[in-house]
Amino acid sequence: MLLGLLKAISRYRGFILDSIKRDFQSRYQSSFLGALWLIFQPIAMIAVYTLIFSELMRARMSDMSGPYAYSIYLCSGVLTWGLFSETLNGLVNVFIANANILKKLSFPRICLPIIVASSAFINFLIIFSLFLLFLVFSGNFPGWIFFSIIPLLIIQMLFSVGLGVFLGVMNVFVRDIGQFVSILLQFWFWFTPIVYVSSTIPEWARDALKYNPMANLIEGYQSVMLYHRAPDWNSLWPVTLIAIVLFVLGWKMFKKHSADIVDEL
């Protein structure tokens, strides 16, 4: 499975890289501010939540100190959630959005999910790099413990890609899936401790968060970026298992229906 995927990436790397470049250009080339919108959108979102919730959360975050505590907490969640949301949304619609290419060109269809996931990850790296610069210049960089986010990102991408490809294939045959995912992500965002701190919600809600894979991942990022502590790896084992299972299921679903996708489109 993995070997076939790596072979496809290696053989068609030129096509993949050109497609990622075209995707980036098509998003921002014709706009006046260009790629700056990539930065402005999450900053605007973070600014709104900070203005609304900062005083409320600061009063309930007794274990946090410093003027930037809530902003760092918020950025750690909003930016990584943005990666998840963009990846999942893109993959759910990837085959439908590229129907013409699938019908006209001959290439491994798995290249399309790779392009979508890579584009989302590059966008994330750009805005996350600015967040890291802020941490460095404000004296809040976590040091060597920062590299603990690498396994978190790997787990998150496995989870996102597996779920996205699985739902993306289903969406070709049942078009309601795409609409459902858009609504689901809105509820999922608020069911994840990004804007609020989990200690501020009722106990029954905190217990329910244990079954939210993204909650465990986001809290891992927040632990590293704000508290300068390694994530709770024990709490991440279930998420890791779910991510691997979803990745395998997504691949098998794609392999099984790869030929049917073009016919259905």
Automatic annotation (TrEMBL):
<dbReference type="GO" id="GO:0015774">
    <property type="term" value="P:polysaccharide transport"/>
</dbReference>
<feature type="transmembrane region" description="Helical">
    <location>
        <begin position="71"/>
        <end position="98"/>
    </location>
</feature>
<feature type="transmembrane region" description="Helical">
    <location>
        <begin position="31"/>
        <end position="51"/>
    </location>
</feature>
<keyword id="KW-1133">Transmembrane helix</keyword>
<keyword id="KW-0813">Transport</keyword>
<feature type="domain" description="ABC transmembrane type-2">
    <location>
        <begin position="33"/>
        <end position="257"/>
    </location>
</feature>
<keyword id="KW-0762">Sugar transport</keyword>
<dbReference type="InterPro" id="IPR013525">
    <property type="entry name" value="ABC2_TM"/>
</dbReference>
<keyword id="KW-0472">Membrane</keyword>
<protein>
    <recommendedName>
        <fullName>Transport permease protein</fullName>
    </recommendedName>
</protein>
<keyword id="KW-0812">Transmembrane</keyword>
<feature type="transmembrane region" description="Helical">
    <location>
        <begin position="110"/>
        <end position="137"/>
    </location>
</feature>
<feature type="transmembrane region" description="Helical">
    <location>
        <begin position="180"/>
        <end position="201"/>
    </location>
</feature>
<dbReference type="InterPro" id="IPR047817">
    <property type="entry name" value="ABC2_TM_bact-type"/>
</dbReference>
<feature type="transmembrane region" description="Helical">
    <location>
        <begin position="235"/>
        <end position="254"/>
    </location>
</feature>
<dbReference type="GO" id="GO:0005886">
    <property type="term" value="C:plasma membrane"/>
</dbReference>
<feature type="transmembrane region" description="Helical">
    <location>
        <begin position="143"/>
        <end position="168"/>
    </location>
</feature>
<comment type="similarity">
    <text>Belongs to the ABC-2 integral membrane protein family.</text>
</comment>
<dbReference type="GO" id="GO:0140359">
    <property type="term" value="F:ABC-type transporter activity"/>
</dbReference>
<dbReference type="Pfam" id="PF01061">
    <property type="entry name" value="ABC2_membrane"/>
</dbReference>
<keyword id="KW-0625">Polysaccharide transport</keyword>
<dbReference type="GO" id="GO:0015920">
    <property type="term" value="P:lipopolysaccharide transport"/>
</dbReference>
<keyword id="KW-1003">Cell membrane</keyword>
